[in-house]
UniProtKB/TrEMBL annotation, chain A:
Protein name: Putative hydroxymethylpyrimidine transport system ATP-binding protein
Domain of life: Bacteria
Keyword ATP-binding found: yes
Entries under CDD domains matching the protein: ABC_NrtD_SsuB_transporters
Native species: Sinobaca qinghaiensis
GO molecular function: ATP binding; ATP hydrolysis activity
UniProtKB/TrEMBL annotation, chain B:
Entry's transmembrane regions: 53-84, 96-120, 126-145, 178-200, 220-240
Sequence similarity: Belongs to the binding-protein-dependent transport system permease family.
Subcellular location: Cell membrane
Domain ABC transmembrane type-1: start-end pairs: 60-238
Lineage: Bacteria, Bacillati, Bacillota, Bacilli, Bacillales
GO cellular component terms, semicolon-separated: plasma membrane
Keyword set, alphabetical order: Cell membrane, Membrane, Transmembrane, Transmembrane helix, Transport
InterPro entries, A to Z: MetI-like, MetI-like_sf
The protein's name: Putative hydroxymethylpyrimidine transport system permease protein
Taxonomy, superkingdom: Bacteria
UniProt-listed GO biological process terms: transmembrane transport
Membrane topology classification: Multi-pass membrane protein
Pfam families, sorted: BPD_transp_1
Amino acid sequence: MNKRYRPEHQETALEFRDVTYTHKGSQSAIFQHVQAEVKQGEFVSLLGPSGSGKSTFFRLAAGLSHPDQGTVFLHGSVPETRLGRVGYMPQQDLLLPWRTILENGMLPLEINGVPKKEAAHNVSAHLKAFGLDGVENQYPHELSGGMRQRVSFLRAVVGGSDILMLDEPFSALDSITRFMMQEWLLEQWQMAGQTLIFITHDIEEALFLSDRILLFTQPPIEGRFTEITVPLPRPRKENARDHPELLKLKRELINRMRGEGGII
Amino acid sequence: MNRWKSAGTSYAGAALLAAAFFIIWEAGARWYDTPYILPAPSAVLQRLWELADILFLVHLPATLLVIVTGLAVSIVCGVGIAVLMSRSRAVEKSVFPLLITSQTIPIIALAPIFVLWFGYSMWSKVAVTVLITFFPITVGAFDGLRAASKDMEDLLRTMGAGSWQIFRKVQVPMALPSFYSGLKVAVTLSVIGAAIGEWLGADAGLGYFSRRMMTQMDAAGVFAPIVLLSLLGIGLFLGVKAIEYATTKRGGRRS
């Protein structure tokens, strides 16, 4: 656990090296020679307004899109395909309505050829930690929004990738549920220790959760991201939200986003 | 509970309306008293009873065979075309306009041609049935296959799924409700298709029998097989509903 506080000494889980990317049919590039690294076990947030390229960053990292130039490394090497190597939790839960909670959780295992029985066993083992025991035979529409997001996260975790990408997972939840889910996510991550990359447009959320924040400003983004390191120690508890250091950083971030013409 | 109650009242309304309709018909027919033009419902039922043997043992099976064969051909071809169209934009662009054009052809005008080609055999009737039923099946399946969102597909790809897995695990289950809607339309149309085919040239079948009674000025005899055709349509419809109920899971059936 201790090593997580000093991510600079760890291996790189994800690296963008000199990545240039232009959306199909678009004139101007969204990334130009972008350079970014995420260390093993690090919690990194991508913060910025919508349309600033956060989702594009995800798609490139997950292998859904390919850079026009440059290279994306996973664990220091270039895999044949990044698909199936990076766990992804989408903004909407995207649970399959005709599958039970258990069957939804089993989906990534089924796709990777794990026998059903073993897959069910594997998912069942996680249910309790995810606060989902007792609902495994229910269908998604019978669950609350917060629970559905936990199923979605469970599905991403069960997939077995040690890099997880979460795309504004809590943006559709009410504020109380969102707070609880943030704390729950921190707990889960502090136990399991995956590399987490987290998209958000919520400054407080980013500050409370992350080791490091990459700022997405108006595209195109060139070279390195503007970066903020959150100096709070781990493990963080709920009261870290009111830490004076966070409030100061929040003010600074707001000013900086304003200065760069970004809208949050 | 409430659902059953409200379903009960809505069906009660339909039953009442139907009852009123038949009572007026019955009364009107008795008053008019020209059974070879307007037979009373009671006369139709009586005729149905008299003709039960030949209708149920000869003509109903003949029509049913046409319908089932026609629907089977339509499902296989329709779903096949729908899958091809959903996989390739080029196929969609080239096939879909033709499909729509095929529906503008007055099928009743084509039916005699089919008799010319296939003779009085079952296949001329099957051809009419296929022509009339494959369109709702194809469109239903195609719309359903397109219902899976891009986000859903992308999610499965990040899990390492190939296109066959995406097809099987997302697109097919997603397509079922829409496919069944198309199929429900198709089964009711299939009865019409078979009847038209038999009307124009056949030596067996409910449509053929109805027409033969026409030539004998037996109006009740014309209606008797029509009652059976209608019941057949309702039965097929309920059959599809039962299959739908069995193959789509509870969670997928929310509104």
